[in-house]
Amino acid sequence: PGLVKPSQTLSLTCTVTGDSISSGYAWIWIRQPPGKGLEWLGVGYYGESSWNTNYGSSIQGRISITADSSKNQFSLQLSSATSEDTAVYYCATGTVKQKSYPRRTVTTVSSLQP
User: Fold this and answer.
1) Does the pTM exceed 0.85?
2) Which of 8, 9, 23, 74 could form a disulfide with 27 if both were Cys (CB 3.0 to 4.6 A apart)?
3) Burial of 103 (C-beta count, 10 Å sphere; 0-12/13-18/19+)
């Protein structure tokens, strides 16, 4: 997932260890573009046995956060990628106690040079 071409869909998956993804925690995606601050992308969580999501306004319409409880994973899909999506992407979890296990992956959106 290190290189995504413009207009493609950026897809990242985070595998949860130590907790069940359906345990009630919030499962979060954040990114940090080069030289910039952190940007909250969205969150997913199980409530009353259904998967719920809330997305950041800057990427509304391009983002999807999904979960696979059988694999204990949650994923980020960001469609129509541009160079503005180049960033370090973090998956994390949080509760009211701010429990957090950040992991990161660097993703660059770049067209291939001749």
Assistant:
1) no
2) 74
3) exposed
